[in-house]
Design a protein that fits this description.
Strand content of chain B: 15-25%
Low-confidence stretches of chain B: none
Oligomer: heterotrimer
CATH class of the domain at 4-119 and 218-235 in chain B: Alpha Beta
Radius of gyration of chain B: 19 Å
CATH topology of the domain at 4-119 and 218-235 in chain B: Peroxisomal Thiolase, Chain A, domain 1
Number of helices of chain B: 15
Shape of chain B: globular
CATH topology of the domain at 40-116 in chain A: OB fold (Dihydrolipoamide Acetyltransferase, E2P)
Order of helices and strands of chain B: EHEHHEHEHHHHHEEEHEHEHHHHEE
Order of helices and strands of chain A: EEEEEEEE
CATH class of the domain at 40-116 in chain A: Mainly Beta
Structural class of chain A: mainly beta
Helix content of chain B: 25-40%
Strand content of chain A: over 45%
CATH superfamily of the domain at 4-119 and 218-235 in chain B: Thiolase/Chalcone synthase
CATH architecture of the domain at 40-116 in chain A: Beta Barrel
Chains: A mainly beta (118), B alpha/beta (397), C alpha+beta (229)
Distance between the termini of chain B: 23 Å
Radius of gyration of chain A: 16 Å
Largest sheet of chain B: 9 strands, mixed
Structural class of chain B: alpha/beta
């Protein structure tokens, strides 16, 4: 079963600025009322890096992480499902999924993953 | 507000100090600063300690209380200031405001960090605790990773190249090799880390597009300064006081993703601008600068955001030798974080110590910027979400 | 000490024929040239002079690794290990790193230790890579069994290659071995195995002439001192 992307972003009811993560007051206009929105569609890869020397808790050789922007403008960090950064380029389309991104104290921690699609 | 001067500075050699506890290091650096200020057995009114990780790494809290006790500075007021890798700069700022306000006359500011007693994995995780706990940290992002994503975009937008980054690394390791306080003592060889096919092992990728030698080392170390009102400093029979002519501090969004332009280090620009305005100086008036080169890209990006070079020119300036000793604006003559090391809580204080050495004209010829009058520092917290800056000025005896 | 030839014939383990490791030269991050070559049995006493001071350095398990290496090299010198070998790294003649291992069977190699005397130059990485190169490419083995005794070793070998975990007990303490297969080796080779051959004559002659050892203080400072690279 495909997991729902369990991200909630917050759109300012006054000026429309989209926040992710949550802020108590709008970064633009200080308004305190937000509409909860869910990411929609695929995303565009804004930046990425392949990290070696990972922190405690990761025992793979490297991890590719990036920031992508969904079709409804929510921007979020996620792990990139690619064997090498050679498969990636700035601005490419990626497909989001909600999967285990690490294991902490024996439990899966779920988060965003992005798979390059073109 | 009173003018505030630095009347004493102290540092201990940075590196891997297995024999010393965090408190030992803070105490040694503080004693060096007290002695440099000619304080003898006098006390201070307040102590500010810059530290990021004692609670996590040493499982120890309230270290400012421990330090005043060890140094017999009781009953001086004592506080720890934690602002990630800008803890040192923030501690100096707090000391400065306390003296400027007229409330305290003599203040000791010490910064220190002991990071080498844990493995590299743990140290990387410790530093990553400054990332957003919900939308960044769980993914395994590290600070080199944040810098990698930033570099990717900065290269794309401003044409920074690996050659430019290499120029910064080589310059700072060359200068660090001359600095007895620096952690790193090795000169880099261009062939060994770049041109030769063997460089793939010698200088491997750390976080694309950054490589091993684009990163500062993990270090232990401490540094300290003594502050007092300028008019009182002038009466002391001691080394020429250095005026803190300006400071600035600014913040930016916690996550990179929420910045409209992630290549724009707004907090750097603002903190620098505030410091220049307060000092009534401009970037072109600065003779020597210590920038926060935790990653080589940061020295370049900061030099542009501060206004030393136009956007897109910082990398070229570094490659052309303009930021070397004897160049247009010597940057990180100490070796910077890249070579002096980056014991996170110590760095902001160490930058002030190094600029004070420069403005007192007391360094050996191969490290002294001739006739340096105005110095500048920038201490970069988080990934640019909390930045502290200072302008220091030589006072003529 | 006189050698009892008849007894020795009983005590000495068998030796597989082992083609030599061809020397190579690597340019390090500081521009120095490191010659990597196979040590001869008669080189062991000279090598031990450099290993000895490391016995007393606790940092990063240097004491454990060097004590074991000392024993292994001595046993190799006195013919008490089956099909053992030792590779050394030398800069300006000085010994800067040592790796050793042996053949368990014609197909399976055992990795023993990696000791970097000069640190911060990836000498351990280069020499470990040379050791794997020897097992796979020159001894023609199918796999090498490896364990790490320090966190640094674990990171360098198990994660960087990466190696695969096995249930096979390793002779160094019985911990479960990790394994480098031919496939893993050739996949990792482009990013981990470097070096130029042949070694220019003057460099090779210098290395072969004498294995120089740094003084004890310098070794200690380099391994466990304040400064870094």
């Amino acid at each position: 079963m495909k997991n729902e992307i369990a991200i909630t972003a917050f759109k300012c009811k006054k000026c429309g600025r989209i926040h992710y993560p949550f802020h108590d007051r709008c970064l633009e206009c200080k308004n305190r009322e937000f509409e909860k929105i869910k990411p929609q569609g695929n995303a565009k890869l804004l930046t990425y890096t392949s990290i070696y020397n990972l922190p405690w808790g990761f025992d793979q050789r490297f991890l590719i992480i990036g920031v992508a922007e969904f079709e409804n403008k929510i921007k979020a960090m996620g792990q990139i499902k690619a064997d090498s950064i050679d498969e990636l380029k700035l601005g490419m389309e990626v497909r989001p999924s909600w999967e285990s991104v690490r294991v902490q104290a024996g439990e899966d921690v779920f988060g965003l993953k992005f798979e390059p699609i073109g | 507000m009173r003018d505030v001067a630095i009347i004493g500075v102290g540092m201990i050699p940075f590196g891997r100090r297995d024999e010393d506890s965090l408190l030992d290091m803070l105490a040694y650096a503080s004693l060096n600063a007290l002695d440099d200020a000619g304080m003898g057995d006098k006390t201070v009114d307040a102590v500010y300690v810059g530290n990021m990780g004692a609670g996590i790494i040493q499982h120890q809290t309230s270290i400012a209380s421990s330090l005043v006790d060890r140094l017999s500075l009781l009953p001086a007021a004592a506080d720890v200031v934690e602002n990630g890798p800008a803890s040192g700069g923030s501690a100096v700022k707090n000391g400065l405001l306390a003296v400027a306000s007229g409330y305290y006359d003599y203040v000791l500011v010490a910064g220190g960090e002991k990071m080498r007693e844990i493995t590299g994995w743990r140290a990387t995780d410790f530093v990553a605790t400054m990332t957003h706990p919900e939308v960044e940290y769980p993914y395994g992002i590290t600070l080199p990773g944040m810098a990698g994503m930033f570099t990717q975009l900065y290269m794309e937008k401003y044409g920074v190249t690996r050659e430019h980054l290499l120029a910064v690394a080589m310059k700072n390791q060359e200068m660090g090799a001359l600095n007895p306080y620096a952690h790193v003592e090795m000169l880099l060889d261009r062939e060994g880390i770049f041109d030769s096919p063997h460089a793939v092992v010698n200088n491997p990728v750390a976080a694309t597009p950054l490589h091993l030698y684009d990163l500062c080392p993990v270090s232990d170390g401490a540094a300290a300064v003594i502050l007092c009102p300028l008019d009182m400093a002038k009466k002391l029979q001691n080394k020429p006081p250095v005026l803190i002519a300006g400071f600035g501090q600014a913040t930016d969004t916690h996550t990179l993703q929420e910045r409209d332009d992630p290549t724009d280090l707004k907090a750097v620009t603002l903190a620098a601008q505030q410091a220049f305005d307060m000092a009534k100086l401009k970037p072109k008036d600065i003779d020597v600068a210590e920038l926060h080169d935790a990653f080589t890209i940061l020295e370049i990006a900061e030099s542009e955001h501060i206004g030393f070079f136009k956007k897109g020119e910082g990398g070229k300036a570094a490659a052309a030798g303009k930021t070397r000793l004897g160049g247009q604006l010597p940057i990180n003559v100490s070796g910077g974080l890249k070579s002096r090391g980056h014991p996170v809580g110590a760095t902001g204080v160490a930058q002030i110590v190094d600029i004070t050495f420069q403005l007192r004209h007391e360094l050996p010829k191969d490290r002294q910027v001739k006739n340096a009058k105005h110095g500048f520092t920038i201490n970069f917290g988080g990934f640019g979400n909390n930045v502290v800056s200072f302008v220091l000025k030589r006072t003529e005896p | 000490m006189a050698v009892d030839v008849e007894l020795e014939a009983v005590l000495r383990p068998i030796q597989y024929p082992m083609p030599p490791y061809p020397p190579k030269v690597i340019t390090l991050a500081n521009g120095k040239k490191m010659v990597v070559r196979q040590a001869k049995r008669e080189d062991v006493p000279a090598i031990l002079k450099t290993v000895h001071p490391c016995l007393f350095i606790e940092r990063d398990y240097y004491d454990v690794v060097s004590a074991r290496l000392y024993g292994e090299l001595l046993a190799y010198y006195r013919y008490r290990v089956k099909s053992a070998y030792c590779l050394v790294g030398q800069v300006d003649g000085y010994l800067v790193g040592i790796v050793n291992g042996r053949m368990e069977t014609e197909k399976v190699g055992i990795s023993y230790h990696t000791l970097a005397i000069d640190r911060g130059l990836r000498i351990g990485s280069h020499l470990f890579a040379a050791k794997m190169e020897y097992h796979i490419e020159y001894l023609g083995q199918e796999e090498v069994l490896i364990v790490a005794e320090s966190p640094i070793g674990f990171r360098r070998w198990m994660i960087e290659y990466p190696l695969e975990k096995t249930k096979i007990s390793h002779e160094l303490g019985g911990v479960e071995s990790y394994r480098l297969t031919r496939d893993l080796y050739f996949a990792a080779k482009p990013r981990l195995v470097v070096g130029d051959r042949p070694v220019p004559k003057d460099l090779l002659d210098q290395a072969k002439k004498e294995i120089l050892h740094a003084d004890e203080k310098a070794i200690r400072e380099r391994i466990a001192g304040l400064k870094g690279r």
